[in-house]
Amino acid sequence: QVQLVESGGGLVQAGESLRLSCASSGRTVSTYAMKWFRRAPVKERAFVARIPWSGGNTAYADAVKGRFTISRDDAKNTVYLQMNSLKPEDTAVYYCNAVTVGMDYWGKGTLVIVSS
Question: In the chain, at which residue ranges do the beta strands (DSSP E only) sit?
Fold first, then answer.
C-alpha cells in the first residue's frame, strides 16, 4: 500500500507562486510514475503534469506548460509541483497520483485558490 498526502495549497493572488508537495509513505514510489491532477469547481478532474520513475521526460497539460514544473526527490519520498504565474483559472483541488503496473494510488488533495 502507498499513502499520499498533498500539502502546500492556499489562497494567493494572480501572478504569485505556490509549491505543492506530495509525500508518500508505505511502499517506496521510486519506481512509480507520479502525476498531478486537478479538479476545478463544477469540472471534471484533469491531468496537470507527469514525471516518470526515472525523473526524465516530464509532461504537462497545455494550460500549465511553461508555468508549472513537476519534480521528485525519491530520497524524501516526495513529489513537487512548482506553480508560477498563477491564474484564477488554476483554482482547483490538486491531487497527487502514483501509478505503476496494476497499482494506482491517490491522495485526498490540497486546495489552491487564485484570486484576481
Answer: 2-7, 10-13, 18-26, 33-39, 45-51, 59-60, 68-73, 78-83, 92-100, 103-106, 110-115
Residue 70 cell numbers, joined: 513537476
Contact 73, 80 (CB under 8 A): yes
Query: Quick one: cell of 3?
Result: 499513502
- Dump pLDDT digits (tens) for 85-100: 999 999 999 999 999 8
CA distance 37 to 50: 9
CA dist., res. 28 & res. 51, Å (int):
15
Q: Please give the Cα distance from 96 to 85 (Å, whole number).
A: 21
DSSP code of 88?
G
Taking residue 39's Cβ as centre, other Cβ atoms within 10 Å add up to 14
